[in-house]
């Protein structure tokens, strides 16, 4: 008897907890990732801000830790200006882009001049989350390794 009452109640809670309608991902996510990287290489801060949602969060993942590096447009603008000032020759290239729903993952390779004045490269995995409006909501960067 209890199972006959409990099961419908749990099923009802599950239905209520499920979103009424899933958001439809935008179709051109790979092009949006490529445009974002191109804007970074051009040091076009305004284009990078326009490509992101106002509540953007840019996070770094290190082992079992998640650190929010940037939160919102003003924070992004400030962080990008600092990054471009300290590494003016930094350029990124990307490998194939894998898309799953609202998420895109890609391996980015950054080329730059290190503190000793030598050319250097590092590579890391990044994951971008897009909203239905096509704007980047969240970015996760995983630990980089030297090449």
**Percent helix range:** 25-40%
Number of domains: 1
According to DSSP, the number of beta strands is: 8
Order of helices and strands: HHHEEHEEEEEE
Question: Describe it for me?
Answer:
With 147 residues, this protein is α+β, with helices and mostly antiparallel strands. It has one domain (26-146): Nuclear Transport Factor 2, Chain: A, CATH 3.10.450.50. Helices cover 33% and strands 38% of the residues. It is built from 4 helices and 8 strands, in the order H-H-H-E-E-H-E-E-E-E-E-E. A hairpin with a 5-residue loop joins strand 6 and strand 7 (136-141). The longest helix is centred in the first third of the chain and has 16 residues, at 2-17. The mean pLDDT is 90.
Question: What layout of secondary structure does this protein have?
Answer:
Layout: H1 2-17, H2 29-41, H3 45-50, E1 52-62, E2 65-71, H4 73-86, E3 91-94, E4 98-100, E5 103-113, E6 119-130, E7 136-141, E8 145-146
Structure summarized in a few sentences:
This protein is of the alpha+beta class and 147 residues long.
Keywords:
4 helices; 147 residues; Nuclear Transport Factor 2, Chain: A; alpha+beta; 8-stranded mixed sheet; globular
């Amino acid at each position: 008897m209890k199972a006959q009452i409990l099961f419908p109640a749990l099923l009802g809670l599950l239905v209520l907890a499920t979103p009424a309608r899933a958001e439809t991902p935008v179709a051109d996510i790979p092009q949006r990732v490529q445009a974002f990287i191109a804007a970074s290489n051009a040091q076009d801060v305004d284009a990078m801000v326009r490509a992101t949602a106002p509540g953007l969060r840019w996070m770094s993942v290190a082992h079992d830790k998640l650190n929010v590096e940037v939160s919102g447009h003003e924070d992004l603008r400030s962080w990008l200006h600092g990054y471009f000032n300290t590494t003016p020759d930094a350029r990124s290239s990307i490998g194939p882009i894998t898309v799953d729903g609202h998420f895109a993952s890609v391996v980015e390779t950054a080329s730059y001049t290190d503190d000793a004045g030598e050319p250097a490269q590092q590579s890391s995995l990044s994951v971008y989350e897009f909203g239905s409006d096509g704007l980047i909501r969240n970015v996760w960067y995983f630990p980089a390794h030297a090449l």
